[in-house]
Automatic annotation (TrEMBL):
It comes from Actinoplanes utahensis. The keyword Transmembrane helix applies. The keyword Membrane applies. GO terms for molecular function: transmembrane transporter activity. Gene3D superfamilies: 1.10.3730.20. This is Ligand-binding protein SH3. One of its GO terms (cellular component) is plasma membrane. It is found in: Cell membrane. Pfam families: Multi_Drug_Res (PF00893). It is a multi-pass membrane protein.
Length: 104
């Protein structure tokens, strides 16, 4: 259960990062509200997961999911560059996250 919560919390990290960008410096109410709710839920989920998952592993997986998710949303939906080197680097992050899960 802790791993599932950690994965959902990582996805919520992507949500709050994108909402933070869309909030335009907290001047737009709806993205600001999404940011706040997603941030609180993401942190709460991380805290819950860290009850049973070591902090180094849990935090690295959480950040990895959030970073890869945010980069993918940027490339797919926000027209950010999606060159081969960037995609390969994201794949390395994914491999690291999967490795941390399996070697936990």
């Amino acid at each position: 259960m802790a791993w599932l919560v950690l994965i959902v919390s990582g996805v919520l990290e992507t949500v709050w990062a994108i909402a933070l960008d869309r909030s335009a410096g907290f001047t737009r109410p709806a993205p600001t509200a999404v940011f706040g709710v997603a941030l609180l839920l993401s942190m709460a989920g991380l805290g819950y997961a860290l009850r049973t998952i070591p902090v180094g592993t849990g935090y690295a997986v959480w950040v990895g999911i959030g970073a890869v998710g945010t980069a993918l949303v940027g490339m797919i939906a926000l027209n950010e560059p999606a060159g081969l080197p960037r995609i390969l680097c994201l794949l390395m992050v994914v491999c690291g996250v999967v490795g941390l899960k399996y070697f936990h």
